[in-house]
Specification:
The complex is a heterodimer of chains A (about 350) and B (about 550). With about 350 residues, chain A is an alpha+beta fold. Chain A is built from eight helices and 21 strands. In chain B, about 75% of the residues lie in helices and about 0% in strands. The chains are: A alpha+beta (about 350), B mainly alpha (about 550). The structure holds adenosine-5'-triphosphate (ATP) and magnesium ion (MG).
Chain lengths: ~350, ~550
């Protein structure tokens, strides 16, 4: 048996005949936040729901805390209520006909907590999310942020080891999202929860996670720590998804990328010679007003003011380059400019 | 995967199949076996089609006009919206009888007044083909009213506003945008009313038969009442009705796809269909309908039930409680019928709500193979006139000899199947409003399927289901078309007793019994709603 708090092996889930998750395997280790990151429709929710027992997978095995809860080969399939999980839904799924207290108490009652211990347990988890004062409020009279907290309180009330979250912050406004993100992280650390967290927001994934799985079309495209995913995307898809704007087709020769127009960019990791794409972030591009050693001439096509910095679209022969610079000094549209990018900011992906 | 759901899915599918299929197949097999005898009576076929067509047209125009009139907002709209659907509670049978007392050529109240005012040549003859169609249209107009109102509510006001902003005049917006958007609902309503109309028994029986105007349903009744009963011929007529209805349903779904069947479930905002012109006129139109379809027939009923003898001369009018006394204490069938009807109403409403909820839950929520088939199967009775279904049941249970034959059991079976689509519709509308994650959250929190249903799903759909229960109870209390074929002296129900008295008794006694029927419905409904309110308070 694996040491992972949640272990998923060769999971295949289909809606009708269309597979939504195509045989993926991963593990969430005890106490870590594992994020499923990917664009809309890539199968994140489906994966999470399969772990919770809300989808019927075709193939694979799922174990939680060392206990097999689903095994297609042995026709094991525990219903959701017997998997001992907690889950926060994207819609929050706050029961509108109950008070805040009743919402939190529901799961405890269902699991047979005695009435004597109930009030204390409910109060504790409401206090943890800062809602102690609202226990008797009808659930329909809550703001979005409060609903989010009730959903969180409800899921942690039963002292779960594993918590699943499906885009829990996507319905909140930007500021609240940041605040709740920090609160959730603190709570997760404090309770030592293992969390599987679904999001399509790369920043959220990088900030919250211990590890990130990038998904694409029902498969795992790349797994790694936030830093690995951010700095070393292994494919064009991941690179685009984590915001690498410059992805230029090239020929690899002698540890450098040869671009059309005779440009040569040294890269940080060698790859076998042949066609590939060289990638670097706009922020890694250095701009000079005058010719500089190793810098290439270009023209500013568009300059966009973004507050903290300027974003430039450059034309360099046939190449379009995206670069960022400080707001001052800035380069006017149409002005000549020289750019370079350090070798350790350039990496190669297959085309 | 999850056991309780699977059991429910299989159980519900089997139950629906057993309810719906045997009578249907029986009608088809015997109908075809009997040959195409009915088609020789082309006049009857034409009558039936004409009656269906004109009734549908009248109901559609009336219901559509009412929906548009009230949709734009008129004084007293909430009250009017309730009054306009009253004919559903009054039922076609009582509406037809009420109109008979108003407009029968020699003794109708309106005619007596007309004669007194303009002499004996000015007569309104309601006991005629045209009269039957007019009354049938009045009685069925609430259906298109409800469907078209729903569609109006579902219209995105932005669509209409966009047309206005782009320079279209109000009349043009109505013609080019509103009407086309309402077309699917209008067609769905037309289909529903047509199937209802060709399957309607009570109105042609009360207002058509005495004038020698026969349609398929009254012909079926006549064939079965003759001695010996000519079941095979009757079934052939049933088969004809079934074929027409099936053809229509098929055409409609081919034209519109299944989407048009779905009741509107989105946010219930009210579109502001341009600032209403002539609100007074609109209100007057609605009040006119209320007067014609509900108030006048009811008054006529009351008048007939309490007059010592029929006259329009106020100096000669004598009022008496004798008719009420007779139906309450003298008429031997009354209390048996009241008991049967109330019992049937309660059982039908409860079972249909339960089964409807189960079917819609399986269709919408369970990941069960074949749930599309279940959905279609549960909607089949919609294209099966009640009388045709009753014929099929007769045929099946005469052969199978289950112990329910001759008891209210067979009526219960007929009612439950007939009203099943209504139960499924209302509960799926309610279920669709519930985010599935509400149930899933309960499961993940540790509640079993049953506990989730009890604690989450039922309480949340309860208001919608209760409303459906009340309407189902009232409809079942007053069902005539299939009851008239399936009852026996032990299992007589109120509506049949009313019709029976109509054919063989004193007209004033009929009116009194009709009132008793309304009163019985009213009392039970008030009890239920009262109970709920008391529960709601605690
Ligand atoms: N109930 C369903 N029936 C049919 N197909 C479905 C159903 N639910 C999801 N799918 C399909 O399965 C695929 C994966 O869906 P899933 O909801 O897991 O995506 P997701 O990664 O969570 O996307 P999002 O970020 O939009 O929530 C999609 O192509 C979707 O269209
Ligand atoms: Mg999702």
């Amino acid at each position: 048996m694996s040491a992972g708090a949640v272990s998923v092996q060769a999971l295949l889930v289909a809606h009708g005949t269309v597979p939504a998750v195509r045989g993926i395997s991963f593990e969430a280790r005890a106490g870590e936040v594992l994020t499923l990151l990917g664009p809309s429709g890539c199968g994140k929710t489906t994966t999470l729901r399969a772990v919770a027992g809300l989808e019927a997978p075709r193939e694979g095995r799922i174990a939680i805390d060392g206990r097999t809860v689903f095994d297609a080969a042995r026709r094991t399939n525990l219903p959701p209520e017997r998997r001992g999980l907690a889950m926060v839904f994207q819609s929050y799924a706050i029961w509108p006909h109950m008070t805040v207290f009743e919402n939190v108490a529901f799961g405890l009652r269902a699991r047979g907590v005695a009435d004597g211990d109930l009030a204390g347990a409910v109060r504790r988890s409401l206090d943890l999310v800062g809602l102690g004062a609202l226990a008797e409020r009808p659930a329909t009279r809550l703001s979005g942020g409060q609903q989010q907290r009730v959903a969180l309180a409800r899921s942690i009330a039963g002292d779960p080891r594993v918590i699943l979250l499906d885009e829990p912050l996507s319905n909140l406004d930007a500021q609240l999202r940041l605040a709740m993100r920090a609160e959730f992280k603190a709570l997760q650390r404090r309770l030592g929860l293992t969390a599987i967290y679904v999001t399509h927001d790369q920043e959220e994934a990088l900030v919250l996670s211990d590890r990130v799985l990038v998904m694409r079309d029902g498969a795992i495209e790349q797994a790694g720590t936030p830093a690995e995913i951010h700095d070393t995307p292994r494919s064009r898809f991941v690179a685009e998804f984590v915001g690498v704007r410059n992805i230029l087709p090239c020929e690899v020769a002698e540890a450098a990328a040869l671009l059309p127009g005779g440009l040569r960019l040294p890269v940080r990791e060698a790859a076998p010679d042949g066609p590939a794409a060289v990638c670097f972030r706009p922020i890694s591009v250095q701009l000079f007003p005058h010719a500089a050693p190793g810098a290439h001439p270009a023209t500013v096509v568009a300059a966009t003011y973004l507050g903290d910095f300027m974003q430039y679209e450059l034309r360099c022969g046939e190449l379009a380059i995206c670069a960022r610079g400080l707001p001052r000094p800035d380069f006017a549209e149409g002005a000549p400019v020289f750019w370079s990018v350090p070798a350790d900011a350039c990496f190669l992906v297959a085309t | 995967m999850l056991r309780a759901e699977t059991v429910l899915g299989i159980g519900v599918s089997a139950l629906v199949a057993v309810l719906v299929l045997p009578p249907l197949i029986a009608v088809m097999v015997t109908g075809v076996g009997a040959g195409f005898a009915p088609l020789r009576h082309t006049d009857l076929v034409l009558n039936t089609l004409l009656f269906g067509l004109l009734t549908t047209l009248g109901a559609l125009v009336t219901g559509g006009a009412l929906a548009l009139a009230l949709g734009a907002g008129v004084p007293g709209r909430t009250l009017l919206e309730r009054l306009v659907v009253m004919p559903l509670y009054l039922t076609p049978l009582l509406t037809a009888m009420g109109w008979n007392w108003l407009g029968s050529p020699r003794s109708g109240l309106l005619n007596l007044l007309l004669h007194a005012a303009f002499g004996p040549h000015v007569t309104l003859d309601i006991v005629s083909p045209a009269g039957a169609m007019a009354v049938a249209a009045l009685a069925t107009a609430p259906l298109p009213f409800l469907l078209i109102s729903d569609a109006l509510r579902g219209l995105d006001p932005a669509l209409l506003e966009a047309a206005r902003v782009h320079g279209a005049m109000p009349a043009r917006v109505f013609r080019r945008v509103t009407l086309p958007l309402l077309l699917p609902a209008g067609l769905a309503a037309a289909m529903l009313v047509f199937v209802q109309a060709i399957g309607l028994f009570s109105v042609p029986a009360v207002l058509g038969m005495p004038a020698g105007f026969y349609v398929a349903t009254t012909e079926i009744y006549r064939l079965l009442e003759s001695y010996p009963p000519r079941i095979a011929d009757a079934t052939a007529w049933g088969m004809l009705l079934l074929a027409i209805a099936a053809l229509l349903t098929f055409t409609q779904s081919a034209l519109l796809g299944r989407r048009s069947f779905v009741t509107i479930t989105g946010k219930a905002f009210r579109p502001n269909l341009r600032s209403p012109a002539a609100p007074g006129l609109r209100a007057a139109l609605a009040w006119l309908y209320v007067a014609l379809a509900t108030v006048l027939p009811l008054l006529a009923l009351l008048w007939a039930a309490s007059s010592a003898f029929v006259t329009a001369d106020f100096r000669l009018m004598r009022f008496t409680a004798a008719h009420f006394a007779f139906v309450l204490f003298g008429y031997p069938k009354t209390w048996l019928a009241v008991g049967n009807s109330v019992l049937l109403g309660v059982l039908t409403a409860s079972l249909v709500c339960l089964l409807g909820l189960a079917v819609s839950w399986v269709v919408l929520r369970a990941r069960q193979a074949g749930r599309g088939v279940l959905d279609q199967l549960s909607m089949l009775p919609l294209s099966m006139p009640a009388m045709v279904f009753a014929l099929g049941l007769l045929w099946v249970y005469v052969r199978v000899r289950l112990p329910i034959y001759g008891t209210i059991g067979i009526l219960l079976l007929a009612y439950c199947t007939h009203y099943l689509p209504f139960g499924v519709r209302t509960s799926s509308a309610a279920l669709r409003q519930l985010h599935p994650e509400l149930e899933e959250a309960a499961r993940v929190a540790g509640a079993s399927w049953l506990r989730t249903m009890r604690r989450i799903t039922f309480p949340l759909v309860q208001p919608a289901v209760l409303a459906a229960w009340v309407l189902l109870f009232v409809m079942a209390m007053q069902e005539v078309s299939s009851s008239i074929l399936l009852y026996t002296s032990r299992s007589i129900v109120l509506s049949v007793a009313v019709f029976d008295l109509w054919e063989n008794g004193n007209p004033s006694d009929v009116a009194a019994l009709g009132f008793l029927q309304l009163a019985a419905s009213f009392i039970v409904v008030s009890l239920v709603l009262g109970l709920r309110q008391r529960r709601g308070v605690t």
